[in-house]
Amino acid sequence: MTYAEQSDNRLQKAIIFGVVLLFEGALVTALMYGLGAPKSSPPPPPRPPVQARVIKPPPPPYIPPPKIQVQAPPPPIKHVTHTKPPKPMPPAKVTPPSSSDAPVSNAPPVPDHMAGSSPLNHVVPEYPEEMSDAGREGVVTVACDVETTGATSNCQVMSVKGGQPFADAALRAVRQSRYAPAVKNGVPVKEFHHLYTITFSLND
């Protein structure tokens, strides 16, 4: 065998070997990326479309209308009389009793006068202890309304000498007192703004 033939045989073997290597590489690549890859799971089936239902509100409860009672008309007048109505009777005359029949009071008429100045229930003003200890005296003028019952109302201090404790003691006294009410035409009346002077003296 010549040298040229030997060279051709070597070249053919090299080509066959290269083709085998290429085939094996392609086979390995196919196994790794094609045949060896896990099969993908099939896609999930599509969900059915959501059906929206419109719920109608229930109808309102039936309220029957109120029953209207119609009064029956009065029966027609079948007979009309033409009799004249009787004449009205004249009012009875009331004769007032004569003055001779009225009881005669021998009591003299009560003269008009103002409310009393001295309490009927004998209320005595309380001397303030602190003023008594200090040896102080005072004079208070109080204005009150005297009701028809003799009770006082709306009492106010008009003037005070000696200190405020005297004014407080005088107000308490006149509010607890009951006086003879004022009289006008023989009837007790309310007197407004009656003045009372209360003197606080250590000698009393």
Commentary on this structure:
- The termini are far apart.
- By secondary structure, the chain is α+β, with helices and mostly antiparallel strands.
- It has helices at 3-35, 129-134, 164-176; strands spanning 138-146, 152-161, 182-184, 187-189, 191-200.
- A hairpin with a 5-residue loop joins strand 1 (138-146) and strand 2 (152-161).
- The strands form two sheets. Strands 2-1-5 form a three-stranded antiparallel beta sheet, covered by helices on one side. It has a two-stranded antiparallel sheet with strand order 3-4.
- Residues 78-82 have low confidence and may be disordered.
- The longest helix is centred in the first third of the chain and has 33 residues, at 3-35.
- It has a domain at 129-200: Fusion Protein Consisting Of Minor Coat Protein, Glycine Rich Linker, Tola, And A His Tag, Chain: A, Domain 2, CATH 3.30.1150.
TL;DR of this structure?
This protein has 204 residues and is α+β, with helices and mostly antiparallel strands. 25% of the residues lie in helices and 17% in strands.
**What is the helix content?**
25-40%
Low-pLDDT stretches are: 78-82
- Rough shape? elongated
**How many strands?**
5
What is the mean predicted local confidence, pLDDT?
78
CATH architecture of one domain: 2-Layer Sandwich
Let me know the largest β-sheet. 3 strands, antiparallel
Subcellular location: Cell inner membrane
InterPro entries: TonB, TonB-dependent_transducer, TonB/TolA_C, TonB_C
Pfam families: TonB_C
Membrane topology: Single-pass membrane protein
